[in-house]
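COURSE: Structural Biology Practicum
ASSIGNMENT: Worksheet 4, Part C
STUDENT ID: 0417
INSTRUCTIONS: Below are two proteins. For each, the amino acid sequence is given first, followed by its structure token string. Answer the questions at the end about the second protein only.

PROTEIN I
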Amino acid sequence: MLEIKDVTISYKNVPTVKHFSLSLDRGEICSIVGESGSGKTTVIRAVLGLLAGGGKVTEGDILFEGKSLLGNTAEQWRKLRGTDISMIFQDSGAMMNPTKKIGTAFVEYIRTHENISKKDAWDKGVEMLEKMCLPSGDNIMRSYPFQLSGGMRQRVGIAMGMTYQPKLLLADEPTSALDVTTQAQIVRQMMELRDEYGTSIIVVTHNLGVAAYMSDYIVVMKMGQTEDEGNREHMLHESANPYTKKLLEAVPSVGGVRYVE
């Protein structure tokens, strides 16, 4: 469904991600892990055409359902983003306008992609919020972002991202700003969304424990390049890469249990 073919991404003609490749099938979850600055977020932003600061793909190609995304017009991107491909940001609350209530932003988002009335858009928003296990979706819609907890804001972001049951969901550190209990809830909900809708997911994270729990395939990045990759079992039990081993050793144990085994 998604194929990233030998892609190099440059800023001001200086490559920051070099020769990155990845193939993702329908319903597959892939995690891209690595230290800060390794190029993880740059890769998924390139997939959605959202490279900041003049960044661009200077080599290779990105194919979605067999069609290159690199030549998309602004109108083609508008139709694609939020419908076939959606993105969850690291802190969804920070991406929301603090002067707008959740409902106002959600209704605008829905009506951008669908020609329906404000009332129908409101009802659709409430339904999606309640699917994310948010109590009283109507009250959430009438709230400002600052009135919600971090976990609730993140659920709002996931609800918006899943409104049109995208074929591909890009998640940029979706749990890093959350407490451990909420992290577990968010991860389980993302996996349930995959199971229910057949959505493919790319998760960017520095937490190899999260990657090991939810992923079918794991890519380890270092300094803008693929350092190691493979299916979950290979990466956890068979990889001989010293950097991967260090990342595994850094995963803490809870109550004597290691969640990467």
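PROTEIN II
(use this one for the questions)
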Amino acid sequence: MTMDLFIDFLLAYNKKVNLVSRQSTRETLDLLVAETLLLKKFVSTPLIIDAGSGGGLLGIPLAISFPEKKIILTETIHKKANFLKEAILLLGLGNAKMFEGPIQEFMHRHDFYESTIIARGFPKIEMLANYMYEKKVKELLLISSVDKIKKIQNTVVNIRQNLYNIPSRNNLIIFKLENVSRET
């Protein structure tokens, strides 16, 4: 029920403020939410950071699905940040917080290693991968095109990598990077 309320709110808000494609329908948003929910089985940390939250199609469904986890939505565009704040209030998501600003600014202040960065369509995924090398986060989960992932795969060879197919999408995958302890 809460997920339907979120999608209804997003569609209504999108009519006055462009958050997602104007051609978005309930069906297309349901598909995007379903893809987001595929991430649930790959998150092992208590904190999830949504890089470039936009219309909230990653962070909000995960906040609904993971009431025990803390979710940070990061967004630089003021109109999108306002929408996200309103959505958090409307849905009563006490586990979600909005950070208005770039992910770099949030990560500069961030000091909790047991966290996961998530992103979809983020323009600079190599920057997000650097947070893995710096050991600022334990995991990075990307929903992205195969071509975009191939561009960074060789630069992250020392980090555990897994690729997961997204059903019914031959051009998108889930790419997980994970810092793992060498201790046994």
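ANSWER KEY EXCERPT:
Q1: The radius of gyration is 16 Å.
Q2: The chain has one domain: 2-178.
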